[in-house]
Amino acid sequence: MPSFKYFIFALVLTLHASATPIAAPTNGCAAVHVITARASTEAPGEGIIGAVVSTVVATSSQTVSREAIVYPATLTDYLNSESQGVAAMKASLAAKTSACPSTKIVLMGYSQGAHVAGDVLAAKATGTANVVAAVLMGDPGHVIGESFQKGSALFINGLFPRAPGALESFSAKLNSFCDIGDPFCASGLDTLTHLAYVTKYGSAASTFVLGRIGN
């Protein structure tokens, strides 16, 4: 991927960054727990996809707790950063499902964070049996022609495509949003497309999650 894409991507995402980390709940078990991975270069916290989480929390009649994983989210040394994100989300998922086995789990991720969440599901990590919904936006692991894809880039691979079918066992629980032109999930040239998913699809994503958790 050309270096100027990294620069533009980092610059624009920095303008959207959330500076407040979201900690895992420490008291009791909520009915639903959302684990989120932020996009590359965003400040610690949920990042821009946190708006979708907030809608779910505000709209659901159930108790919903939220947690943002701690990982580098860097573009430099991307693959190592993403690997650390996968390890962090696996650890959070295992800890939460061990402590609260009846809690329904939702995974969300944007860009590198979507790559992280998707790879956790693909690995069928400990606790994924408790996952009732997952939302990926701008996933660099995007693979053509899979049933859970949303958006216009149905037949274009991302920069780091997973093995075909790696996520199909979660298809009913998963929405992955990717549009043509996105440099990261669709190997395109339009960085603004990559940044538009919450604005364009946030309502659809939150509605999907609310339907999956039983409102």
Walk me through the structure.
This protein is 36% helix and 14% strand. The chain has helices spanning 3-16, 50-59, 78-99, 112-122, 191-194, 197-213, and strands at 32-37, 64-68, 104-110, 131-137, 149-150, 174-177. Helix 4 (112-122) links the parallel strand 3 (104-110) and strand 4 (131-137). Helix 2 (50-59) runs parallel beside helix 6 (197-213) and helix 3 (78-99) crosses helix 4 (112-122).
* Count of helix runs: 6
Give the total of beta strands. Answer: 6
Shape: globular
Average of pLDDT: 90
Strand percentage lies at 5-15%
What spatial order of strands do you see in the largest sheet? 2-1-3-4-6-5
What percent of the residues sit in helical stretches (DSSP H or I)?
25-40%
* Main structural class: alpha/beta
Distance between the termini: 41 Å
Series of H and E elements:
HEHEHEHEEEHH
Largest sheet: 6 strands, parallel
What does the radius of gyration come to?
Answer: 16 Å
Query: Which regions are unreliable across 5 or more consecutive residues at pLDDT < 50?
Result: 1-21
In short:
With 215 residues, the protein is of the alpha/beta class.
Which structural traits does this protein have?
disordered N terminus; alpha/beta; 6-stranded parallel β-sheet; 14% strand; 6 strands; single chain; 215 residues
Please write out the topology.
Elements: H1 3-16, E1 32-37, H2 50-59, E2 64-68, H3 78-99, E3 104-110, H4 112-122, E4 131-137, E5 149-150, E6 174-177, H5 191-194, H6 197-213
Parallel strand pairs: 1-2, 1-3, 3-4, 4-6, 5-6
Helix pairs in contact: 2-6, 3-4
